[in-house]
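re the bet — no i am not wrong, look at it urself. input seq straight from the record:
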Amino acid sequence: MATLSPARRKAIVSEYKTHDTDSGSPEVQVALLTERIRELTEHLKDHDHDFASRRGLNQMVSKRTRLTNYLRDNDRTRYLELVKRLGLRK
């Protein structure tokens, strides 16, 4: 459902990392959250009464918002590039 396969997770980390050993930068975290949000959104289209998953989705969206706000406030160019690459509405 909302868990990423290790291979998909590794691909996302390698695509959005800022340096060779990066696995926790805001860009990587936002990209991983975005992928999980997209998967969970598809799940909820079929299972509209799954309120526990909907709560988890809301928490993930909130965390992604906080991370993007942090990036926006600290490094505007990285923020704008990330929003463009992920296709987020901001």
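see?? The first helix runs from residue 6 to 16. told u. also Residues 1 and 67 are 23 Å apart (CA to CA). so pay up
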